[in-house]
């Protein structure tokens, strides 16, 4: 399978890189040899990361064509534009999970997608901004009861035995084993999701067993998860959507 040729860097990035290397080469101790060595190392690393990115896309395409019998055209204009954006975002993060999520999600960004173009563009922007931990937490908000049954067997029975819970108490007890620091980080992540209109939940409000485990995603949030498919699913069986509570920052 062939993919459109992409530029090594944007003009802005090329200018910035050139300026930085110019400063380095101006330092007598470092000199021109060191600057060229750095430039070669950076270029080699970028090529390796881009090749890895394309391999993830290729694997996702094979899965799409096999499981859904979907049509895929690598020359599609909408896919071409989307993959440029996704590749740029993947170059700007060291988070491997996020890079893989971008690569796998962009396969659904062509004209063959059932999602309209404006929403696809919004979802790609969101995926570029949010972390995989945000998305795992959004999956929990979408189906709290099913998530707990899968990852924390017996949790729903324990929740049913107590008349009232707040959603924050559920997260602290069953997602983070009582860790207040991780719960605070997750609460901030929930605020991010609410700000993006992907979910709605009052973390401190007490509710009955039935209502505390209701779906907490908006229609937009549920559509984002469908757009992503099974990317960033928790395959390791870990108990926390945050993968240990790290990676919630959108900065």
What would your notes on this structure say?
The chain folds into 2 domains: 11-129, no CATH class; 132-228, no CATH class. A two-stranded antiparallel sheet has the order 1-2. The protein contains 12 helices and 2 strands. With 251 residues, the protein is an all-alpha fold. The model is unreliable at 1-21, 234-239 and 243-247 (pLDDT under 50). The two termini are 35 Å apart. Helix 3 (77-91) runs antiparallel to helix 4 (96-106), helix 3 runs parallel beside helix 5 and helix 6 (132-142) crosses helix 10 (180-195).
Shape: globular
Query: Which whole number gives the mean pLDDT?
Result: 80
Give the CA-CA distance, first to last residue: 35 Å
Radius of gyration in whole Å, from Cα? 21 Å
Strand order of the largest sheet: 1-2
Summarize the main sheet: 2 strands, antiparallel
Strand content: under 5%
Q: What structural class do helix, strand and pairing data support?
A: mainly alpha
Number of strands: 2
Elements, N to C (H/E): HHHHHHHHEHHEHH
What is the percent of helical residues?
55-70%
